[in-house]
Write a structure and sequence with these properties.
The protein is built from 16 helices and 20 strands. The protein has 565 residues and is α+β, with helices and mostly antiparallel strands. The structure holds flavin mononucleotide.
Amino acid sequence: MNKQTETVLNYHNRTKHRLERYAKGPESIDWEDQPDQFRRFSGCDIVTLPKPGAELDPLFTDLDTPEIIPPKPLNLVNAGLLLELAFGLSAWKQYGPSRWALRCNPSSGNLHPTEAYLISTGNDFIKSGVYHYVSHDHSLEQRCQFAGNLPDSGILIGLSSIHWREAWKYGERAYRYCQHDTGHALGALRYAAAALGWSVELLAEWSDEDIAKLLGLDRTDDFKPLEQESPDIICRINTHADSKLLENTLDTNTDSSIKPPLPSGEGMREGFQKSVNRERQQYEALLESAQSGTWFGLADSLRAYHLYQWPIIDEVAIAANKPRTEEPEWQAVRQCIIKPTCTKTATAIIRQRRSAQQFDGKMSPLSQTDFYRMLAAVLPTTAAFEHWRWPPKIHLFIFVHRVEGLAPGIYALPRNHDVLEPLQAATLADFDWQKVAEAIPLYHLYSGDCRQIAKTVSCHQPIASDSAFSLGMVAEFGETIETAPWLYRRLFWECGLIGQVLYLEAEAAGFRGTGIGCYFDDSVHEILGFKDDKFQSLYHFTVGKPLEDKRLETLPAYGHLNDVV
Ligand SMILES: Cc1cc2nc3c(=O)[nH]c(=O)nc-3n(C[C@H](O)[C@H](O)[C@H](O)COP(=O)(O)O)c2cc1C
């Protein structure tokens, strides 16, 4: 085992919450001292984006078949909408003198370590260069001006994380949460793009070093010590109908629907090859543009005292640094096999997404159709995963509490047929692995009331037991990390992506979800029977009927912009 792999595995084991002690975090928190949620760079030109809040026509159900959505033209209005629907504010909440913003993308502890950048490569509505998105102001700060246009016009989106923003509250475990948040942001970006008739292409070949160069994150003097950003992801936004690499075939064969499908159709393959070549050329051209460009601005201080420091986060970040890689090509997309019943627009669902703080533990059961639809929506060949280029490595173990027609108990949804047998072999011998649904690969393992267990293993949080169901996202872990230590991050991203799908699907069904980052890792493994690190639970989630906290006032997302004008 190489040194980096060892560092990542040590980090993972050391940051497990255990029933007898939580992972290392700050001993006390001064809430007045919370790091600024909104990064700003002083000394940049500001591009004010058109007024946020526009509604788009596509229904949430249309996002299952994004190729039927006419693509919106690429201009400042629609680029602004993309950023707003992915990373913008969705509301303000107020309780007494406290007021805090919520965003379309969720974040553990609402700390929002993820920063978003727009890269323009030759458009008439905005100069070519790199821009930092300020969600609070719905504006762009121009960090870099490229010397000229690139051969391909269009936009890219880059994501980075300020680890310290999360570590301020969560200490050593924060690095995991930053990765979850990146996955959620990637999911949010895909939904936003699909609502505009666009698609997201994850440029997974990029090394972290090169992403840092492109986004200007390697310019250490531009950032305060301990407040740097770590590079995560670069995506191209395809804004034309012909660049959507989709093959939609309605396939109700459940086994093949969870296997990574092969591209088919000569035209499709050719189109894809062109896109791969274009990608390679654009990689070099983008790097060159950033390196020869003119950079502006200095990151403002996040205005919080660095009382505690967590050097292990820097260590794992270095060990999980991604080099430049060759990546698999494309996976075909199939229509989701169960339709949602929702009649709302996509923009309405995206903006109403929230985390439930409390559930109605006496709710009438979630309908089986809605439950199966939510599970069908997280299968890897659905449109929500069109930008995810790898076979799935995350599988669901579900504590069913209140679902119509299903006995309460433990169920499994392997998202890849190939992993069914290894999962069966790794879990408790008592589990019966009875397939319970025709359309989706859902297996019954054990009948019994699991509410208390679910709550206990989720750091005693009642949201895990008062819901219709809660679940653990189990990763194919050991072998993946040994293949390459930076895949550690990708596992968490995949979890975040699944979480984002569940958040929106829950809203569409008239329910609500909440991500659960706080759980006792090895207690979950014990319940399922895992004895080693072949499989590890990396994220939890819960869905139920929310109880509103009537003490909280809800204010419009961008009302404050009107105040300024
Ligand atoms: C990775 C992640 C982990 C989370 N863990 C928990 C948790 O353990 N308990 C909880 O009540 N909420 C949890 N949340 C919900 C966040 O607190 C919530 O997203 C944040 O407060 C912002 O609120 P919003 O989702 O309504 O926008 C988590 C969210 C994410 C994305």
